[in-house]
Write a structure and sequence with these properties.
Elements: E1 2-6, E2 9-12, E3 17-24, E4 32-38, E5 45-50, E6 57-59, E7 67-72, E8 77-82, E9 91-98, E10 111-114, E11 118-123
Parallel strand pairs: 2-11
Antiparallel strand pairs: 1-3, 3-8, 4-5, 4-9, 5-6, 7-8, 9-10, 9-11
């Protein structure tokens, strides 16, 4: 299984960025997908997740209303649209997939496969 994340970059505060993650080797429709982020010296933290049905996304409180997770099972891709970016959103962003039904989507330990990470830097 391979996950390839892309779309990171350097942007100014208040602008938007769209991250993409392509999954190969497994059918995305069978998995929960999520985005995490990590800054130096800190643990990888939950950002957003979409269950296998895609019916109800979950977000970390600080990104609610600004970030949108979406999935295209036909293309085996998951995206993270990030709007109104803030300097505190600066991090390496990772995509991950886990079992279709998870009792708790937020711990990184719930996910089995990870992408390599893409850097997002938001300047003030």
């Amino acid at each position: 299984v391979q996950l390839q994340a892309s779309g990171g970059g350097l942007v100014q505060a208040g602008t938007s960025l769209r991250l993409s993650c392509t999954v190969s080797g497994r059918a995305l429709r069978d998995y929960t997908v999520a985005w995490f982020r990590q800054t130096p010296g800190k643990e990888r933290g939950f950002v957003a997740a979409s269950t296998w049905s895609g019916s109800r996304p979950f977000y970390e409180d600080s990104v609610k209303g600004r970030f949108t997770i979406s999935r295209d099972n036909a293309k085996n891709t998951v995206s993270l649209q990030m709007d109104s970016l803030k300097p505190e959103d600066t991090a390496v962003y990772f995509c991950a997939i886990g079992r279709p039904i998870l009792s708790n989507l937020r711990p990184s330990s719930a996910y089995s496969f990870w992408g390599q990470g893409t850097q997002v830097t938001v300047s003030s």
